[in-house]
Write a structure and sequence with these properties.
The protein is 34% helix and 0% strand. By secondary structure, the protein is an all-alpha fold. The longest helix has 6 residues. Keywords: Nucleotidyltransferase, RNA-directed DNA polymerase, Transferase.
Length: 77
């Protein structure tokens, strides 16, 4: 399973087009520091935002449960 299949982003959108790694349920992939989107860690692509993040070791699953990656909410791209 790919996170985009269960993350509310089926059939397109920024996440659907840029995911570069299968992350399963997202619990073993770090949202900010693993290169799961376009092969570049999000902490490098969005460094200023990463500086403000409290939980820098959050998993992809945790971030998706908070609403990140759902079209129309908290877009990063």
């Amino acid at each position: 399973m790919r996170i985009r299949d269960g993350g509310g982003e089926v059939g397109g959108g920024w996440f659907g087009e840029h995911i570069s790694k299968k992350v399963g349920d997202g619990s073993d992939t770090f949202f900010w520091t693993d290169p799961w989107v376009d092969e570049t860690p999000l902490c490098e692509r969005f460094g200023r935002l990463f500086d403000l993040v409290e939980n820098k070791s959050a998993s992809v699953a945790v971030m998706f449960s908070l609403g990140w990656g759902q079209e129309g909410r908290r877009g990063c791209g």
